Amino acid sequence: MTMNRRDFLKVSTGASGSLILAVSIPGCASVQTGYQPETGEWKPDIWLELTRDDEIIFTLARVEMGQGSYTGLTTLVAEELDVEPGRIKVRFAPVAPEYRNPLFGLQLTGGSTSLATSWEPLRVAGAQARQMLIMAAARVWEVDADQCTTQDGRVVHPNGLDSLRYGQLVELADREVVRGKVPLKPRSEWKYIGHKGGKLDARAKATGTAVYGMDVELPGMVYAVMTRSPRYGGKASSFNRDEVIGMPGVTDAFITERGVALVAQRYWQARKAQQKLRVEWDVSDALDTNTEAVFESYRQAASKDPGAKERSEGNVEKAAERAKQVVEAEYEQPYLAHATMEPMNATAWYRDGGMDVWAPTQAPDLGRIAAARHTDLSPGKINIHTTFLGGGFGRRLTQDYIEEAAAVAYQLKVPVKLIWSREEDTRHGFLRPAMLHRMKASLNDGELTGWHHQIVGPQILDWYVRNAAPAQYPWAPKFLYDTLGRVGLMAEGIATPKDISAIEGAIEYPYQVQNVSVRHTHTDPGVPITWWRSVGYSHNGFAVETFMDELAHESGEDPLQFRLKMLDAEPRHREVLERAARLADWGQTAPEGRARGLALFKSFGTYVAQVVEAGIENGEIRVYKVICSVDCGQVVNPRIVEDQIEGGILFGLTAALYGEINFDNGEIRQSNFHDYRLMQMHQTPEVVVDIVDSEADPTGVGEPGVPPVIPALGNALFALTGKRQRRLPLTA
Fold first, then answer.
1. Are 502 and 518 a contacting pair, CB within 8 Å?
2. Beta-bridge mates of residue 661
3. What is the structure's pLDDT at 29?
4. Listed residue (650, 651, 653) closest to 716, CA to CA
5. Quick one: DSSP state of residue 395?
6. Measured in Å, how far apart are the chain's first and last C-alpha atoms?
7. 645 to each of 144, 571, 610, 629, 634, how far by Cα in Å?
8. pLDDT value, residue 23
9. Residue-wise over 349-366: b if at least 16 C-beta within 10 A, else e?
10. Coil, strand or helix: which one is 202?
11. What pLDDT score was predicted for residue 20?
12. What is the rounded CA–CA span in Å between residue 630 and residue 388?
């Protein structure tokens, strides 16, 4: 399809007056509700199922990858249903439009949106079911429903003595109709929301009964490994099939779109055969670059193109002309891998005119499209069974591993589990993009009068739309899949949501400055990229808060006071910054050989300030303590908030200290944890998480701990050494 954006808009608006790429068709509900007399099951809505035997089952539409959605979202339902959260059984949702994330129009878990998007709908679901049970009991007793109460899964008679179990009422409750809005429990009556509680999936995970993708076992299952081109975009042209097919346990070997698939009765048999594999690669269209060339292309693009105007207030050029001092800086961040605990894997079984896929995926509806691409099946013939995820961090939003498993299973017609090795995960995964930032600020007698931020790099949607657009239209014929993706990109920011992955966090610059300019120079060197924990906030946080520290130093002010004087209009920013500084004894002398640095950043609606205390020991950076104050609105489970913020801090510190993926002639240098290091237990600092008590609607906590810790550490090292580092990872 050859059509520019202007022509596309003429055609689309001329035909229909508008174009919307996320369609909800009323009357086509795919999730059945109501009472089933054969089984005694009652589904008052798409989320809940109550049975005659007093079972309560909650359908979780967001995946569980360690971030606590399994517990947090169940707690919302339990609170309004008036039962202990531990009494509720949880099952993962099938692919259905009813379970889509309303912010994205896709059934995905990401962007720290699970709690924010579920806060009201799940509470309403629980409250309505509870009200219908009360109405049924009141009808039995012939009393006023308003006089009845509930307690621990029972409806209590107005006399306070008689009661009926929920299970006794499910059939009658199905006949009740709730008119108008059901009032939700006031905060003063909450038993579970806002209180510390253990994770509901902890026992299953501790005892090994929780099923991850790697745990799936099927009768007659074989194992597959995929040998991919060392350079992205390379294609296998031939390989020594006769040699490897005769090795013990090997049952098949063939070329696919992704590379060469080896299939064996056991996983290690497939891996041993892979060691003998010799592949001829056609790399005529493959990636051919190195890290230095990527950043050189970024600099050239930045010099030629000032970029699209993303935020503009006042006049930064005039501010610079009038300034007594102009400060400029350039920051670099490398490509990063995700390094999830569980490597990529999926199990697929093509049978009876359909396919079942078991996968640890953050986006099951995109997984269905990925499988459909490599079979003769429509998406409706493919069932995605979501498992627990051994970490996601955004990597499992991209479904390449499901595509591979589906392609192999389609050819073999038997259950196939395809597993990536750690080396493959490092060398062939999709990465967080490398980014370049050019900063320029104007100072007059210590006052910041102008702020200019030019962001240089790619957009993730360019790589993600391939399966995301068709997932919104699962009924579309497959020959339209790629066209839908191209249309989505052309309409981006007009008829489809704007991709802010490169600029998020930068455009929300919170400090009161009269003249502000934020621009994005879009350039893409062809390295495959995807979402990474905290996405654009991760690199923009480093650039913004490091540069703010530089400006404080240039103006001769304390970094805390320099920021505070520009936050009068941002009380929530100001509060977390002051709290973190107070808890860290900011202004007091740090222990000998140590220094402190701070940073403030809002991401995914959550305000976070951090103070890092660091030093250098035996030629290596040592982080001793991180003090973090967080305002995430209403807290559902403080323990989960603490866990996630601490996990985000360690994730960010790992990136700050070690994270770097480099290319040579299109090939990734790093291969495993020996050269793509992670922070180890003995290196972890003391972490203090201070949670602001708030009644605002809840926001996310899975990612906001990451962005501020990286610049806070860099700022601490500057305070210690007097040397400013503008490139990651940081060095001693």
1. no
2. 335
3. 67
4. 653
5. G
6. 52
7. 47, 21, 11, 10, 15
8. 28
9. bbeeeebbbbbbbbbbbb
10. helix
11. 30
12. 28
CA distances from 704 to 148, 650, 658 (A): 43, 12, 20
Q: In what order do the strands lie in the sheet with 686-691?
A: 594-603, 606-617, 620-631, 686-691
Strand partners, 348: 357, 416
Phi first, then psi, for residue 139 (nearest 5°) are -65, -40
CB 316 within 8 A of CB 514: no
- Give the chain's count of helices (H) and strands (E): 19, 28
8 Å CB contact between 677 and 581 = no
- pLDDT for position 377: 96
> Could you please report the per-residue DSSP string of 292-317?
HHHHHHHHHHHHH---EEEEEES-HH
Per-residue confidence (pLDDT) for residue 14, from 0 to 100: 35
Question: Taken in order 319, 322, 325, 331, is the CA torsion positive or negative?
Answer: positive
Judge whether 495 and 21 are in contact, CB under 8 Å: yes
The whole model's pTM is what?
0.94
The bridge status of strand 416-419 relative to strand 435-444 is unpaired
Comparing C-alpha atoms, which of 615, 627, 598 is closest to residue 683?
Answer: 615
Closest CA to 419 of 238, 240, 217: 217
Give the Å distances, CA to CA, from 168 to 133, 165, 424. Answer: 9, 5, 54
The whole-number pLDDT of residue 371 equals 97
The residue type at 220: G
What single letter denotes the amino acid at residue 451? W
Q: Which of 442, 445, 453, 444 is nearest to 318 (CA)?
A: 442
Task: Name beta bridge partners: 627.
Answer: 611, 688
- Amino acid present at 600: L
* Residue segments in the chain with a per-residue pLDDT below the cut of 70: 1-29, 495
pLDDT value of position 485: 87
- The DSSP string of 430-499 is -BBPPEEEEEEEEEETTEEEEEEEEEEE--THHHHHHHHHHHH-TTS-GGGHHHHHHHHHHTBTTTB---
Q: What span, in angstroms and rounded, lies between the C-alpha atoms of 22 and 5?
A: 19
Angle between helices 535-555 and 706-721 (to 10 degrees): 30
Residues 6+ away with beta carbon under 8 Å from 617: none
Residues written for the chain: 732
Whether 543 contacts 453, CB under 8 Å: yes
In this structure, is the dihedral angle defined by the CA atoms of residues 81, 82, 83 and 85, taken in order, positive or negative?
positive
Q: Is residue 128 within 8 Å of 44, Cβ to Cβ?
A: yes
3-state secondary structure 535-582: HHHHHHHHHHHHHHHHHHHHHCCCHHHHHHCCCCCCHHHHHHHHHHHH
Assess contact for 592 and 616: CB atoms under 8 A.
Answer: no
Rounded distance, CA 114 to CA 133, Å? 28
CB 101 within 8 A of CB 117: yes
SS3 of residue 62 by DSSP: coil
- Name the token pair of 35: 């009472």
CA distance 37 to 34: 10
CA dihedral of 245, 247, 248, 249, whole degrees rounded to 10: -20
- Backbone angles phi and psi of 273, in degrees to 5: -65, -35
- Element spanning 350, H or E: strand 345-351
CA 239 to chain centre: 38
Answer yes or no: are the C-beta atoms of 629 and 560 closer than 8 Å: no
Q: Is the dihedral of CA 560, 565, 570, 571 positive or negative?
A: positive
| 583 Cβ contact list (under 8 Å, min separation 6) | 611, 627, 629, 688, 690
